[in-house]
Specification:
Length: about 220
């Protein structure tokens, strides 16, 4: 985290009552689970990479499938409602501990913008060694949500997300993504962001985020 970073765990940013007007969303609280959670998520990420890359003989696949079924049986009784699992709420873990999100870490979080660094892995492969084009909007969309939050605006929905792909996005090397609020107009927050690899611009993104009306899903 940079010195400039605001406290990412402060969901009541600025103590603004307006935050309470966050549509029909549950209120998400950050959590710090025990070390086994980090180990579990990390192991699952390795499994994701393997699941999209192995070419194993039938007996190996049969043994793996048996273990996967056993694991699902073990975890099945512990499913929690939205906002209660540590997934997505463990700020200190890459991708906030959510397997949906690529394993990126927040480096700066404040009203002047959010920056995160990380990499795409084999799991995110599109073609010819490059990241799948759909993984970039996923990362940008999540970044937009964090930027709105860090700016002190209530939880907003993405109305549009425009991505310009400028160069092939490589796997297994550290990349950066950064964005900030450009302007605010009533419920509308306009945000721009970019993804870079060193000095190379990989993608640019522009989004409109709309503050939800009370009760809006
Ligand atoms: C727990 C600890 C963790 C803490 C961590 C730190 C904090 C992190 C916090 C969070 C991080 C994660 C966050 C993730 C964030 C993800 C966000 C999403 O992906 S949301 C899913 C994708 N989006 C949808 O599914 C929307 C679907 N669409 C809708 O629901 C509606 O269309 C909605 C709400 C967007 C707008 O509907 P209306 O009825 O409320 O509003 P209308 O009247 O249509 O528009 C209002 C104004 O906006 C303009 N507008 C609307 N859509 C537009 C568009 N596509 N293009 C241009 N203008 C548009 C309109 O022209 C209008 O403008 P005029 O007021 O007249 O000037």
């Amino acid at each position: 985290m940079s010195e400039q970073a605001a406290d990412v765990t402060r969901l009541d940013y600025d103590g603004d009552d307006e935050y309470e007007h966050h549509g029909g969303f549950p209120k998400y609280e950050p959590v710090t689970p025990g070390p086994d959670w980090a180990r579990f998520v990390d192991g699952m990420r390795t499994l994701q990479d393997l699941a999209v890359s192995v070419d194993a003989p039938d007996d190996v696949l049969a043994a793996a499938a048996d273990q996967v079924e056993k694991l699902a049986e073990l975890l099945g009784p512990h499913v929690a409602p939205e906002g209660r699992s540590p997934a997505g709420r463990t700020i200190e873990l890459p991708g906030r501990g959510s397997l949906l999100l690529p394993p990126w870490n927040i480096e700066k979080f404040g009203p002047d913008g959010v920056r995160s660094t990380g990499m795409f892995r084999r799991y995110h492969l599109g073609g010819n060694g490059a990241a799948h084009g759909g993984t970039l909007p996923l990362l940008f969309d999540d970044l937009m949500g964090m930027i709105v939050h860090a700016y002190g605006r209530p939880i907003s929905r993405t109305a549009y997300l425009h991505v310009d792909y400028r160069a092939i996005t490589p796997l297994n090397t550290t990349l950066a993504i950064e964005g900030k609020v450009d302007r605010v107009d009533g419920r509308k927050t306009y945000i721009t962001a970019r993804m870079t690899h060193g000095e190379t611009l990989l993608a640019e993104c522009e989004a409109l985020m709309l503050v939800l009306l009370p009760g809006q899903p």
